[in-house]
Amino acid sequence: MDEYKEYLYMRRPHYRDLEVGNLTEQKNLRNRLRCKPFKWFMEVVAFDQPKKYPPVEPPDYAKGEQDVRHISQEILRNVDTRTFPIRKCMRNSKHPYSTMPIYCRSGATIEECLIECIEGWSNLCIDTKNKGQKERFGLEKCIKDYATQQGEQQFVLSWHKDIRPLKRNLCFDVSSSEKYAPVVLWKCHDMQGNQLWKYEVETNHLIHLLTGGCLDCDSQSREIFMNPCDQTRETQKWSFETVNFTVNQNW
Q1: Neighbouring-strand partners of residue 205
Q2: Which residues contact residue 221 at a Cβ distance below 8 angstroms, ignoring those fewer than 6 apart?
Q3: What are the coiled-coil residue ranges (predicted)?
Q4: Distance between the two ends of the chain, CA-based, in angstroms?
């Protein structure tokens, strides 16, 4: 591999310490046959390889937790569940007392009910819960806000322009364009299509480029789905923990 072996060592550092034995015979054969260098193979035969498998991977667009707070390799939160819970708890009241929140334990005070309701609505994050291919997923309380909460809430909007749970090869996949279209996990194929996403930093929208829809949710049922993009809908605004603004500007 000549100088290209350094790219391999960058991803697999322990390979440097592998015992490969005496390669004198192989090297002599290469010289005797006047074999071309590995660089020639990469530039003439496998010239399109770096487009899909670059020697040095480009930076990701975003990562972290994704919430209906929201943003890129880590947590992905939904903004609506940060700013709307108090109004939602009071407005959706079905209790005989007009000031009582919708969710209430038997014997709880109005104040206790309101606190429990707000906590149930606020700070929700996308959680794939280590689910498998073809499975849907939804919203759960953000692990970083609740020490006892468990799940899978770290995501990457990768340089492939797909969204995947950190350290897993399953991607957010959308195959239809109707309202409330489901979002499922599917094996990442790095060919965009059903798995092509763009994060709009200014609007906090996660746009599915093939269908033109935006990632949306219902914080009451905690479901995730697709809908036509609407800048007035807080349920379509997402935040990542970290966003690479430079890479996003050059999307």
Answers
A1: 200
A2: 138
A3: none
A4: 32
Residue 88: its pLDDT value, please?
47
In degrees and rounded to multiples of 5, residue 187 shows phi and psi of -55, 130
Q: Of 186, 238, 251, 247, nearest to 64 (Cα)?
A: 238
According to the model, what pLDDT value does residue 24 have? Answer: 93
User: How far is it, in rounded angstroms, from Cα 56 to Cα 6?
Assistant: 10
139 forms beta bridges with: 126
Let me know: does 161 contact 153? Beta carbons within 8 Å: no
Q: What is the phi/psi pair of residue 91, to 5°?
A: -70, -30
In a 3-state reduction of DSSP, which class is residue 127? strand
Contact 143, 153 (CB under 8 A): yes
> What's the CA gap between 207 and 220, in Å, rounded?
22
Enumerate residue ranges in the chain where pLDDT < 70. Answer: 63, 65-122
DSSP code for 39: H
Task: Give the model's pLDDT for residue 212.
Answer: 96
User: Distance between CA atoms of 200 and 48, rounded to whole angstroms?
Assistant: 29
